[in-house]
Amino acid sequence: MPGRFQIAVLACAGLAASFGPAAADTHAFGEWICVETSAELFDVVIDDGSHRVNNLSIVEGVNRLSGATVLRLSASVSNRSDAKSPISIEAVGRPESGDHPIFAVSATPPFGQISGGETEELKKDIVVSPGTIGEAKDTCVRAMVE
Prior knowledge:
Layout: H1 4-19, E1 26-27, E2 33-35, E3 45-47, E4 51-62, E5 69-79, E6 85-94, E7 103-107, E8 113-114, E9 119-127, H2 132-135, E10 138-145
Parallel strand pairs: 1-3
Antiparallel strand pairs: 2-10, 3-4, 4-5, 5-9, 6-7, 6-8, 6-10
């Protein structure tokens, strides 16, 4: 029979675990993953054992040169294989109602592929109207690799 000390330790461990960082679910390449807030994208991990996409973000900002409002997609992509791999990341903002997306953006590495054993940050800006990101009920992302 456990003593009071053991029960207290187990209770504290359980309480601490409930406040710890949420474990990221791992998703497959080609799978659409939809989240309600841009902050939830940071927890998305796409992994097939040879390639990994994480640290996804979509933010609205201003282009420094033109002053235009832009939507910026960025992600970290790792290629753990020895070969070059074509890869892309796609994101779509879905509306509350209707068939047409609020925004759509795709990012690829330079020359469309990432070298074996490398990690790169993919970034892509698109020009949007101010407040575009707030109009989407959710954002869906997927990564494709060949």
